[in-house]
Automatic annotation (TrEMBL), chain A:
Chain positions covered by the region annotation Disordered: 69-104
Record domain Complex 1 LYR protein: where: 12-69
Assembly: Mammalian complex I is composed of 45 different subunits.
Ubl conjugation as UniProt keyword: no
Regions annotated as coiled coil: none
Annotated localization: Mitochondrion inner membrane
Origin species: Mortierella alpina (Oleaginous fungus)
Stored CDD domains: Complex1_LYR_NDUFB9_LYRM3
Swiss-Prot/TrEMBL keywords: Acetylation, Electron transport, Membrane, Mitochondrion, Mitochondrion inner membrane, Phosphoprotein, Respiratory chain, Transport
Name of the protein in its database record: NADH dehydrogenase [ubiquinone] 1 beta subcomplex subunit 9
Acetylation recorded as keyword: yes
From TrEMBL, chain B:
Location of the Carrier domain: 47-125
InterPro entries: ACP (IPR003231), ACP-like_sf (IPR036736), PP-bd_ACP (IPR009081), Ppantetheine_attach_site (IPR006162)
HAMAP family per the UniProt record, alphabetical: Acyl_carrier
Organism name: Mortierella alpina
SUPFAM superfamilies: ACP-like
The protein's name: Acyl carrier protein
Entry keyword annotation includes RNA-binding: no
Length: 104, 128
């Protein structure tokens, strides 16, 4: 796999993950979400055999546009992830002595 | 009612003592010791490696695209279990959900087998 192919694989993986996360934000019910996840997978697989660079770029652009449009206003954030409810809570207090104030 | 708001005599006394340099020095030692003692510790002291292994293997076993006979800790998702890149994303998301952590894309890219996943989850101290 060339560097460009690896970069493209990562881009598509990121798109797929963000799509699933967005679907998870909108569909609380697991059964509905599973159905949506399968639909998303079909949509991604439909573009699997695109070879022309322009077609690929268009498909990626279209996916990004849809993701932006469907972004959830209050997405789920894992508790310890930045912005989550437990993010940076109960950090152990600094035990080192503060530097002596010499400028007084 | 307002009496409770008034600083207590003990507080005044400690403020007076604080002026004395010798007391300040001994207090600073006591303060750092206190900080150590009062650092909150959680009841859960991380996950044991066996339990992480079992939970990761259970996730793989529940994945319908994986042949149950081929599952092992060292099996590569792509070459041994026959998963493509999008299936790997699904596995990583299942692991995220199981341990209630968020795995950044950079780290998710390194997870290529169950053993990698177990290593990564054991490293994360916020995994549940």
């Amino acid at each position: 796999m060339s560097e460009a192919q690896i970069a493209h694989r990562r881009l598509v993986q990121s798109l797929y993950k963000r799509s699933l996360k967005t679907a998870q934000d909108w569909y609380i019910d697991t059964n509905l979400f599973r159905r949506k996840a399968v639909e998303l997978r079909i949509q991604f697989d439909a573009n699997k055999n695109l070879r022309h660079p322009r077609q690929i770029a268009q498909a990626v652009q279209e996916a990004e546009r849809q993701l932006k449009e469907l972004r959830h206003p209050d997405p789920y954030i894992a508790p310890t992830a930045p912005g989550g409810t437990k993010f940076e809570r109960n950090i152990p207090p600094p035990t080192a002595e503060p530097a002596a104030a010499e400028h007084h | 009612m307002f009496r409770a708001l008034r600083p207590s005599a003990a507080l005044y006394r400690s403020a007076v003592l604080y002026k004395n340099p010798a007391v300040v020095a001994s207090q600073s030692v006591a303060r750092s010791a206190m900080a150590l003692n009062f650092a909150r510790s959680y009841a859960s002291a991380g996950l044991s490696r066996e339990s992480v292994e079992k939970r990761v293997m259970d996730i793989l076993a529940g994945f319908n695209k994986i042949d149950a006979n081929k599952i092992s800790l060292q099996a590569n998702f792509n070459s041994d279990l026959g998963l493509d890149s999008l299936d790997t994303v699904e596995v990583v998301m299942a692991i995220e959900e199981e341990f209630s952590i968020e795995i950044p894309d950079k780290d998710a890219d390194e997870i290529k087998s169950a053993a990698n996943a177990v290593d990564y989850v054991s490293k994360r101290d916020d995994a549940h």
